Amino acid sequence: MTDEIPLPDLSTDKDFDGESFSPIYSTTVTVSGGKAGHGRASGEARTADGALDLSLRMPVELGGDGQGTNPEQLFATGFAACFHGALSLVARQEELDPADISVETTVAFGRDPADGGYLLRVDLVVTWPGIDPEIADPLLEKAVSLCPYAKMAAQGTPATITLVP
Question: What is the pTM of this model?
């Protein structure tokens, strides 16, 4: 590692015993414009702080031109980044260097045989050269328990949908 990254001031222990969700950080993204006739996201996506500002386009495989980012790519990016961060954190806590860890996330969009609708499937591949699997396995399990994307994939996530006229 070239630059020391300060550890976040967050506990990795299961030490929260509140009665309800306790937000630590939130962000807002607005998607607007584009062609809605095809039932897939297109248009522009922008975070409230402007740090992310990009065009959404359908992938070629779904009949689009592939000239922009699609929701599955964004989800895969978020999942990979979150899991990488969680695993790096637990590795540093064990005094292991996480510099060589990489997380590849594949998100597949497809049909749900249960109801005929759509479903996402997520596959993560962690590359950690030189680590003994007996050392890595418990750290991977801890990262799964810390990564909210992994928890969401396993347990679902509460969501609200509000219509504003």
Answer: 0.85
* 129 DSSP 8-state letter: T
Question: What does CATH list as the number for 16-69?
Answer: 2.20.25.10
* pLDDT tens by residue, 22-35: 877 888 999 888 76
Assigned token pair, 80: 């990979």
Chain centre distance of CA 93:
22
Please name every residue paired with 57 in a beta bridge, in sequence order, or none if there are none.
none
Closest by CA to 139, choosing from 105, 79, 95, 108, is 95
Domain 70-165 has CATH 3.30.300.20: yes
Secondary structure of 18-69 in the HEC alphabet? CCCCCCCCCCCEEEECCCCCCCCCCEEEEECCCCCEEEECCCHHHCCCCCCE
Where in the chain are the domains?
16-69, 70-165
Q: Tell me the pLDDT tens digit for each residue of 91-125.
A: 999 999 999 999 999 999 999 999 999 899 999 99
Provide the mean pLDDT of the chain.
88
- How far apart are alpha carbons 100 and 161 in whole angstroms? 40
CA distance 163 to 4: 45
79/85 Cα distance (integer angstroms): 10
